[in-house]
Design goal:
Blueprint lengths: L11 E7 L8 E7 L17 H14 L2 E7 L1 H7 L1 H15 L6 E5 L10 E5 L7 H22 L7 H4 L5 H10 L20
Parallel strand pairs: 1-4, 4-5
Antiparallel strand pairs: 1-2, 2-3
Helix pairs in contact: 1-4, 2-3
Length: 198
């Protein structure tokens, strides 16, 4: 059972990202402020939910949330500042775009770059503990999936519509055979798919 809030003193937004472990495409993040009475039996960490249900949940979250926003950092920025900093920057961009400014952020994970003038708490596996982080994970994942599906037709050999840029065997084989596309993160290593470590 997910919890509604980490604390009750301040207006709280949950933040999460999607696409950190991908070889191609941007990292997306979302920030979500939910109403006090929010509850949803299906809402959980986006990785635990079927794709079609994620898009149903996205619509419900966007209709119900007090405020929500999505931020993105593209593959070129990722190569410049590294994927960890890019994930934090994507979250910052999402928070910046919120129409209502929160006083407190709860972040999925164990690290975060401080957002100016807003307190925060990092929560390991927070997307399976708090509704607002789970909601943010749904938005980040579905908006990123939409992006990867949209660019799939430009480079169909990599099968981004299926793998969303993650290092599947098909994706890695395509990179080894064809090289990087303009959307690939050049600082990410791609090794033989037969090896257990990539």
């Amino acid at each position: 059972m997910l919890l509604p809030f980490y604390q009750n003193e301040f207006l709280e937004a949950g933040c999460d990202e999607a696409g950190r472990g991908c070889l191609a495409g941007p990292v997306f993040a979302a920030a979500v402020i939910l109403p006090k009475n929010f509850n949803h039996p299906l809402l959980n960490d986006s990785k635990q939910i079927k794709e079609k249900d994620r898009f149903i949940l996205r619509k419900e979250i966007e209709e119900t949330a007090i405020a929500f926003a999505v931020g993105m950092v593209d593959h070129q920025e990722i190569d410049k500042i590294n994927i960890l900093n890019a994930s934090f920057l994507a979250m910052h961009r999402a928070v910046e775009k919120l129409t209502i400014k929160p006083d407190f952020l709860i972040i999925d994970g164990n690290r975060f770059n401080v957002y100016p003038n807003i307190k925060h708490q990092c929560i390991v596996k927070g997307d399976s503990k708090y509704f607002s982080i789970a909601a943010a994970s749904i938005l980040a994942k579905t908006y990123r999936d939409d992006f990867m599906a949209a660019i799939d037709s430009e480079f169909p050999a990599y099968q981004w519509k299926k793998n969303k840029g993650y290092p599947t065997i098909v994706h890695r084989n395509a990179v080894l055979e064809l090289g990087f596309s303009p959307y690939h993160r050049k600082t990410f290593k791609v090794s033989n798919p037969q090896l257990s470590i990539f």
